[in-house]
Amino acid sequence: MLNITLGTAGHIDHGKTALIKALTGCETDRLKEEKERGMSIDLGYAPCTIADLEVGIVDVPGHENFIKTMVAGASGIDGVILVVAADDGVMPQTREHLDIISLLGVRHGLVALTKIDRVDAGRRREAAAQLTAYLQGTFLEGKPILPVSNITGEGFDAFLESLGDMVRLIPPKRIDGVFRMPLDRAFSAKGFGTIAAGIPSVGSAAEGDEVVLLPQGMKSRIRRIEVYGQPSKLVQAGQCAAVNLGHLEAGAIDRGDVLTVPGYFSPEELFLCRLRLLPDKKIRLKNASEVKFHTGTSEVSSTAYLLEQGEMQGGEENFVQFRLKRPVVAAPGDTFIVRTSSPARTIGGGTIIEAIERRLKRNRPEVMEDVRSRAESVGDDSRFVEYAVRAAREQAAAESELARRTKIAPVKLRDVLAKLIDRGRIISVGANSFLHADILAEAEERLAARLDDYHREAAESPGMTAEQLRREFPWPKAVFDAVVAKSKDGGRIVERTGRLALASHQPTFKDQDAPLLEKIEEVYRSNLFKPPGADEAAKQAGAPPEKIDRLLGILCEHQRLTMVEKGMYFHRDAIERAKQLVVAHIGEKGRLESVDFKYMLDTTRKYALPLLDHFDRVGLLRRVGNTRFLKQ
Questions:
Q1: Strand 592-593 vs strand 627-630: parallel, antiparallel, or unpaired?
Q2: What are the pLDDT digits (tens) for 507-562?
Q3: Over the Cα atoms of the chain, what is R_g?
Q4: Burial code of 521-546, b = ≥16 C-beta within 10 A, e = fewer?
Q5: Which residue has the higher pLDDT, 427 or 547?
Q6: Distance separating alpha carbons of residues 323 and 302, to the nearest angstrom
């Protein structure tokens, strides 16, 4: 059993349904109206064994009034059987169906030239020649044109052989993605409840799995699965399937709804797409035109906003934003079809790039650069994940958000992320968050530029504290830490005396400041545990009072002084000596009473208590009432 689905295409009354019945023994016209009128009006499904391989077949209606139904069925197929009656030849829906199949990206197919029992040998040759000419330039050019009769069975052996050759060339759909099943119909079955049918476009699901119906947002669980009409424990992308859902009413489900895994998809109304118009000189699409937008099994009225020009002509390709009248569920890389209402005709189709939150502004170079980058990445997991990480900029991209945006399942996503890390394209920051290497390099430049400015403004300073520097940039802490770490590893910045600086920076003092700084430091070194206030220090050092705060700040930056509370400074020798005394005392006694500390330093409570509080703040001591213990 292959997870491949074939589909028919062609004009009404050219024998599509009869061909499937001859192939499978199944009557795909299940509705009473279809049987009475002898005309397919809805989608029909059948299992088909070809060269010992079982695949699914979707039969689509050929009447022009049911094109939207045909598109819904064709959206899930991997290969096509274009059916053309020998007596009629190429007809309007032959052309439109082939246009739709081509726009949907189907690249495998063959042609069944049916009703050969109604024509002579000359007409057969004429019809085949007409088809050969018509198919030039299409993906069916050079593919087999196989005469068959659904009545007599003539030509079926050759037809089945070619069909088998085609099936063997079709790659099965991916089943490692996030399960998503556009629904064709739903009904109630006695003894089972609600049954929903369709062809999953990606991934797989098993009995018991939790699913969500969108856009309704209703959760359910899969009770039972049938694939090609047979019970199965698993349904995979590309298989015609019906699933029995618990806690859902069939009347709440419409064609176009989607069954998927919770947490990945949400209904959206605005999509950025790449649109290609059919090569017809009569086709024109103006900006803000109203069109029908088909994707998956849904059909929605929408407005097309062109991004690069005011009008598109037949054969042109452009980036377009479609605003839908109601939300649908779609993923990057999904195909779509665009049709006009008056006249009712298919004019183009293409690929969905991504759902977007708001309309992009036209004719802005940076917007178009991003759009092109986005478009080029969709369809390649590694490139799309890298794009999504880059697009997060300095905020970094969380793994959970990447999974939601790219629609890649966790196991596969982690593998992609690991490979991008190995290639140096992204780096891991924080817990399960990632930053693009180019963004990191840009951030390093900005960080270095800010430090360079600071060094010019305050040449005497050894640098900026990490907290000062972080306030300059709106980065999450994990990103800031990663930028600093990378800059340190590269030798571009260094950390000295608890401050960050360019490696090339050497503090330089103004000529008149250097001797004053030495004198002020000596004042505090000479008065370790009874330090003077700022004014007294200025007086003793002979420094201008208006400069003393700046000079004291410089000495603190160089860690020669420490301000333990506002206006009170201790020399670093005092801090170190007091620390040694505290550790030794608690090591011997097990504790330190606050009242004892002033005697140990031969000072007063005015100086002793602020110094103890400082040791509490820096994590040396733990206070309980008036008693201190070593924190570590």
A1: antiparallel
A2: 776 666 778 888 888 889 889 999 999 988 888 888 888 888 888 888 888 888 98
A3: 37
A4: bebbeebbbebbebeebbebbebeee
A5: 427
A6: 5
